[in-house]
């Protein structure tokens, strides 16, 4: 069993929201299939001290990162019905209900890794200001791992962002810094901020 599969099994054993067991667990790795390997490669180069998952849902990738690196982990989501309180205690996950677009961020900046998987397409506003806000939470060498649904397979999915405007927003958000943004479910693409 891989470390990622162990994380999924641990979450499943904690009697999560029924949606995790009935649908989400089987589908979630398709949402961000390459990101765990990218994280493992990056952790081998530089062990993170602090990691953040924005829109953490059940906390699979956050649990994976914690098991892989031992870093301090923070998580936000718009609702508190998905992330298990037992998992929060077990891994000392600091959790806050927060809307990354509208709410002030609840903790100080300084993250080595930020996860933003399957969240961007739910934004209600032009994403550049929020992406800049996220960029400012990263350390200079930090990385943002980003995934969004493939529009061809998610027809009708809420607010699916067109590729060209998304990359323009990423370029605007990255201007003037040095952090790395790693995107996609295709070969690794990175942009220096």
Describe the protein's architecture and organization.
- By secondary structure, the protein is an alpha/beta fold.
- It has one domain (3-192): Rossmann fold, CATH 3.40.50.
- It is built from 7 helices and 7 strands; from the N terminus they run H-H-H-E-H-E-H-E-E-H-E-H-E-E.
- It has helices at residues 3-13, 18-31, 35-45, 60-69, 85-90, 128-135, 163-174, and strands at residues 50-54, 72-77, 94-97, 111-117, 138-147, 180-183, 189-192.
- Strands 3-2-1-4-5-6-7 form a 7-stranded mixed beta sheet, sandwiched between helices.
- The longest helix is centred in the N-terminal third of the chain and has 14 residues, at 18-31.
- It is globular.
- The model is unreliable at 154-164, 176-180 and 183-187 (pLDDT under 50).
How would you summarize this macromolecular structure in one to three sentences?
With 193 residues, the chain is of the alpha/beta class.
Please identify the structural class as seen in this structure.
alpha/beta
Give the strand content: 15-25%
The rounded Rg comes to: 16 Å
Low-pLDDT segments, ≥5 res: 154-164, 176-180, 183-187
Terminal CA distance reads 36 Å
- What's the rounded overall pLDDT mean? 82
- Outline, from the CA principal axes? globular
User: What composes the largest sheet?
Assistant: 7 strands, mixed
* CATH architectural designation: 3-Layer(aba) Sandwich
Quaternary organization: single chain
CATH superfamily: Vaccinia Virus protein VP39
Number of self-contained structural domains: 1
CATH class: Alpha Beta
Instruction: Determine the fraction of residues in helical runs and give it as a percent range.
Output: 25-40%
- Can you count the beta strands? 7
- State the helix count: 7
User: What's the arrangement of strands in the largest beta sheet?
Assistant: 3-2-1-4-5-6-7
- The H-and-E topology, N to C, reads as HHHEHEHEEHEHEE
């Amino acid at each position: 069993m891989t470390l990622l599969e162990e994380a999924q099994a641990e979450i499943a054993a904690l009697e999560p929201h029924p949606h995790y067991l009935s649908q989400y667990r089987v589908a979630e790795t398709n949402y961000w299939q390459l990101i765990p390997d990218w994280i493992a490669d990056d952790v081998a180069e530089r062990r993170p001290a602090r990691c953040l998952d924005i829109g953490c849902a059940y906390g699979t990738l956050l649990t994976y990162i914690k098991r892989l690196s031992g870093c301090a982990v923070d998580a936000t989501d718009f609702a508190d019905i998905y992330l298990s309180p037992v998992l929060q205690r077990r891994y000392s996950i600091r959790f806050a209900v927060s809307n990354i677009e509208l709410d002030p961020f609840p903790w100080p900046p300084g993250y080595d890794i930020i996860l933003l998987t399957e969240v961007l397409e739910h934004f209600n506003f032009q994403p550049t200001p929020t992406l800049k806000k996220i960029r400012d939470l990263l350390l200079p060498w930090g990385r943002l791992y980003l995934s969004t649904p493939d529009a061809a397979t998610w027809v009708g999915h809420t607010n699916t962002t067109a590729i060209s405007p998304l990359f323009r927003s990423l370029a605007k958000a990255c201007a003037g810094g040095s952090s790395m943004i790693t995107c996609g479910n295709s070969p690794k693409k990175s942009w220096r901020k």
